[in-house]
Each structure stands twice: as C-alpha cells, then as structure tokens.
Specification:
Elements lengths: L1 E5 L12 H11 L3 E5 L4 E4 L2 E11 L3 E3 L2 E3 L5 E3 L3 E4 L5 E4 L7 H10 L7 E3 L2 H6 L16 E4 L2 H9 L4 E5 L9 E3 L6 H8 L7 E5 L8 E7 L2 E9 L14 E3 L5 H16 L4 E7 L2 E6 L6 H8 L3 H13 L1
Parallel strand pairs: 1-2, 1-9, 9-10
Antiparallel strand pairs: 2-4, 3-4, 4-7, 4-8, 5-6, 11-14, 12-13, 12-14, 15-16, 15-18, 16-17, 18-19
Helix pairs in contact: 1-8
The structure holds adenosine-5'-diphosphate and magnesium ion (MG).
C-alpha cells in the first residue's frame, strides 16, 4: 500500500522522539511505500488534489539500553514528483501546530480527496477540533474551565481559587501556559500580554495539584486507548510537557482513565479523529491533541510495544 505523510521538513524531525517517524518506519517495515510532502506543497487542479511527493527510505532507530539511537543520515529521499493524493491508500496529516489560517486551508484542500483514500485525521475533524476547546465537549470529565478575553472575568476566576492555569488556545508543548495566583504582582500585566490587550480569547482552568505527579498522555486509536505515558514536571517547572523537560515515566491506564476515554470516544469517532493524544491530570481531561500527537517512541520504550505498527496496521485494515 501507499502511505503519504504530510510533515514538517523531514530534516527538522527528531527520529528518536517524533511519532511521525515511528509511523513511517512501521509502514516501511510492513512493506508499504512511504512518501512525504509538506502542507504547502499541495495543488488542486482538474478537480484533484496533487502533492509534491518524495519517496523516502528510513534506517530504523535501534534500542541502546534505555534510549533509542538513530544513525546520522537516518532518511534517504528519492526523486520527487507531483502526484494525485488519490493515488495513495492513506494520507497522514502530521504537520505540527500551531493551527494557522494556511493550516486550515490545507485541511479544506485535503477534504477534496475522494473517500477511497483515508486521511488521518479527517480534515473536517481537524477543522472542528481546537486542541484546547474540544475538551469543553465533555463537561463531566474536565476541571472547572472558562474561555474569555475579558480581563475582569479572568481576575474574578483567579480570585476565587488558590491558583489557576491560563492556556493560549493555539499553544502546544507548554507554550504560553501560565500559573496564576491573585497575589502575583505581575498578574495584570501577564493578562494584558496573554490576551494581547483583550484581542484573543484564552482558556483558564482551575489549577489541579495532581499536576505535580504528572500529565498523563493516553494515545487513542479509533477511540480506544492503546498506550500511555506519564510526564512529570522537574525542578522548578510546573509544566509536565516533554518539550520543557518533563521526565517521562511508565504508567497505567486506570478505570477512571478508561471512563474518560469512553466519554470522548463517540465524539472522536463522529469527527474522524482516529489518532488522538488525550492529556489527563489526576481524574480530569485537560487537553485533546489531534494535530500531531506525540508519545509513541517513549511509550514503545517504556512499555515494550510498537504503537507505530498498531496504527499502521489499523489504517491498512481500514483501506483494504
Ligand atoms: N488544569 C491544570 N492544572 C495544573 N496544571 C495544568 C493544568 N492544565 C495544564 N497544566 C500543565 O500545563 C502543561 C501543558 O498543558 P496542556 O493543556 O496539556 O497544553 P499543551 O500541552 O498544549 O501546552 C501540562 O503538562 C501541565 O503540567
Ligand atoms: Mg498537552
């Protein structure tokens, strides 16, 4: 079968960390063709979506004790050509956030691909689901949350609790996440910076003290949990994201986690969000990552599984 991956420039990917590379390796190992392109390399002509596709061959990472190692020239690209994406059995949209207007245009272009090619995640799902706001669809499993750009409303929310967490709606990897307390002398100024003087709505959540024990990532495939890892804040940092130095640790999927997964699964399925990373703190869902969730490499290492293979085999089964 033919798999196309829409990714950030391949030279910028980290083969020992990025889930996209794990999936490309798994596709290659299963005997599929692996093609890559970038989100700004799509063209619509004659009513078809074309991509400038490059064939790629990977040297898989190897296990060295407790970490993965990659050779320096871990990928080799063949000659590129413009091809209709309908020639592919599956297209994996794996461009990293932020979700910008050009990103949304790309999803609208991908939506023109005929159903005989499976696009993961579904373009309409990517349009519908902001990674922060989507959690609001599941009020029974989220912490107290508001979305506003009104400074007075934010100040009131902060004043009513010991601490609150502020999240820009387009952030990832901990970007722009703030820990707010009423007594912080920078509070007003921080809010002015974050709301760009009341021009951008933000999310505020009650601060969950369980965050110090970790931010759990659960990978869902077609609504079912297939693996999990914990990310524990280190040093003086309150954020658990791997991108800011969170320490990864093995973890379990508890009955409460299963309940949260079951709560979100029907909506994810309805929206074509097949490959998703849920972030859970304590007993609550805090974020639904749909663009290019990460964690596969780390889960494979900690749990001796091969989630890339699980995902690729599932996609192959859907399109066969
Ligand atoms: N409600 C919360 N209470 C405490 N800490 C939180 C809360 N929400 C997020 N965090 C912290 O902020 C980090 C990033 O939050 P998240 O919502 O997952 O956004 P992103 O990962 O996109 O930056 C988490 O790893 C966690 O440490
Ligand atoms: Mg997160």
């Amino acid at each position: 079968m033919k798999f196309a991956f829409i990714i950030d420039p391949i030279a910028q990917l980290n083969p020992v960390h990025d889930s996209s590379v794990a999936m490309m390796e798994a596709a290659q190992a299963a005997g599929h063709e692996v093609w890559i392109t970038e989100f700004h390399q799509l063209t619509v002509k004659n009513g078809q979506v074309w991509g400038f596709l490059l064939p790629v061959t990977l040297t898989p990472v190897e296990l060295a004790g407790d970490h993965w190692v990659a050779v320096e020239d871990w990928y080799k690209m063949g000659e590129g050509s413009l091809q209709p994406l309908s020639n592919m059995d599956a297209v994996l949209m794996r461009k990293d956030p932020p979700v910008t207007i050009p990103y949304l245009y790309t999803t609208q272009i991908l939506d023109l691909i005929p159903d005989s090619t499976l696009v993961v995640n579904a373009p309409r799902g990517l349009q519908a689901a902001n990674e922060k706001l989507y959690a609001l669809n599941f009020p029974s499993v989220i912490p107290e949350t508001i979305v506003t750009q009104d400074k007075a409303v934010i100040l009131d929310f902060v004043a009513q609790r010991e601490a609150a967490i502020l999240k820009p709606l387009a952030g990832k990897g901990g970007e722009g996440i703030l820990f707010l307390e009423e007594r912080d002398r920078n509070l007003n100024s921080l809010l002015e910076i974050s709301t760009r003087d009341a021009d951008t709505p933000l999310m505020l959540q009650e601060y969950l003290p369980a965050a110090s024990q970790g931010d759990k990532r659960i990978i869902l495939l077609d609504g079912k949990p297939i693996g999990a890892l914990n990310r524990i804040p280190t040093g003086k940092e309150f954020r658990g994201n791997m991108a800011v130095g969170g320490r990864v640790a093995q973890t379990e999927i508890t009955p409460r986690d299963q309940e949260i997964c079951a709560t979100v699964a029907p909506q994810l399925k309805a929206d074509g969000l097949y490959f998703v990373g849920l972030d859970l703190i304590g007993d609550y869902l805090t974020e639904v990552n749909v663009t290019s969730p990460t964690g596969i490499r780390e889960i494979d290492l900690l749990s001796q599984v091969s989630l890339g293979k699980t995902v690729i085999d599932w996609i192959a089964q859907q399109v066969s």
